[in-house]
UniProtKB/TrEMBL annotation:
Gene3D superfamilies: 3.40.50.2300, lambda repressor-like DNA-binding domains (1.10.260.40). Keywords: DNA-binding, Transcription, Transcription regulation. This is LacI family transcriptional regulator. Signal peptide: none annotated. The lineage of its organism: Bacteria, Pseudomonadati, Pseudomonadota, Alphaproteobacteria, Sphingomonadales. One of its GO terms (molecular function) is transcription cis-regulatory region binding. It comes from Sphingomonas hengshuiensis.
């Protein structure tokens, strides 16, 4: 009998007088071990309250039991993980993964080299990866996706892309937002967002499509960061430069829209009296703002479910296609 507690399969193997591999197979229920030996090993394990660790099981199956969730910020390096959109999506992903027995390993990446994703994969700490947003890294994602199956991306879909993406129809969402402002009588409209990333660029393209046949609409594309501490300065500078304010604002995110409302209020402009404002995402803060924010809803919960489901199928060796979810116009009091 061994002194002390049985801590590893090697301790149990020594006690049973067999190899560690035999113990591993017996506890896993493999029929390669005869029934008498298997029963003896299982009884010894019960007597000594021994349970093989999840790490040991993962090493035997070459599974890590963890999924990497990565947020690349090449287009807007000042944006933080505390951004309400990131927190909402990551929360849903954590719930989905936990229910399926996986841990979530979170990384915020500021890409300075094209091998940032290769390095994460080569570290071999995760069974697969969910990338939150393409940022300006679509080329990197396509290159990795050509040879690496267990990866899915939250983001916009562009014809010809190699990586599997799941996200809202951003073009349609942009068109819905712009058409709504036009229907509300807006004729001088500002788009606020950083179009270096695919999703905001598609939203702007949709907005342009909505006014394609209208010669009476002025659309101003105004580069705006997503981080509130920077976007507030961007918006204030823009308003100063143009003199007369726009009568409508389409913001590429709810956070930018709410920041715009603060800047407008500081200048004595009311929403929606002087300027109508619509955002994008339909986060909880959009519902609770004063006044409540009109926006384009992304079904983030459904997106998280699709991301996890698709990734698990890919981990199992199955190819999956991109998914484009329908956006929904949500009209509240800011338009």
């Amino acid at each position: 009998m061994l002194a002390g507690k049985i801590r590893t399969i090697y301790d149990l193997a020594k006690l049973a007088g067999v190899s560690a591999a035999t113990v591993s197979r017996a506890l896993a229920g493999k029929d390669m071990v005869n029934s008498e030996t298997s029963e003896r090993i299982r009884k010894l394990a019960e007597e000594h309250d021994f349970r093989p660790s999840a790490l040991a099981r993962n090493l035997r199956t070459r599974r890590r039991g963890a999924i990497g969730v990565v947020v690349p910020l090449g287009h807007d390096r000042g944006q933080h993980l505390s951004d309400p959109f990131f927190m909402t999506l990551i929360g849903y992903l954590a719930d989905e993964l936990t229910e399926r027995g996986f841990d979530l390993v979170l990384s915020r990446v500021i890409p300075s080299r094209d091998d940032w994703l290769s390095r994460l994969i080569d570290a071999d700490r995760a069974d697969g990866f969910i990338i939150v947003g393409q940022s300006d890294q679509s080329g990197v994602l396509d290159r990795i996706a050509a040879d690496y199956l267990p990866m899915v991306v939250w983001g916009g879909f562009v014809q010809g892309q190699v990586h599997c993406s799941i996200g809202t129809d951003n073009f349609l969402g942009g068109r819905l937002a712009m058409q709504h402002l036009i229907d509300r009588g807006c004729r001088k409209i500002a788009f606020l967002g950083n179009t270096q990333a695919i999703e905001p660029s598609l939203r702007l393209e949709g907005a342009k499509a909505a006014i394609q046949a209208r010669s009476d609409i002025e659309l101003m594309d105004t580069p705006t960061h997503f981080a509130p501490e920077v976007s507030g300065t961007d918006i204030a500078t823009f308003l100063t430069q143009i003199g007369d304010p726009p009568d409508g604002i389409f913001a590429a995110s709810d956070v930018i829209a709410l920041t715009a409302m603060q800047v407008l209020a500081a200048r004595g402009l009311s929403v929606p009296g002087d300027v109508r404002v619509i955002g994008y995402d339909d986060l909880y803060v959009a519902q609770t703002s004063v006044p409540p924010l009109s926006t384009v809803r992304q079904n983030i919960a459904a997106g998280a479910s699709h991301l996890v489901g698709s990734l698990l199928r890919r981990i199992a060796g199955e190819q999956t296609g991109s998914v484009i979810l329908n956006p929904e116009l949500i009209v509240r009091e800011t338009t």
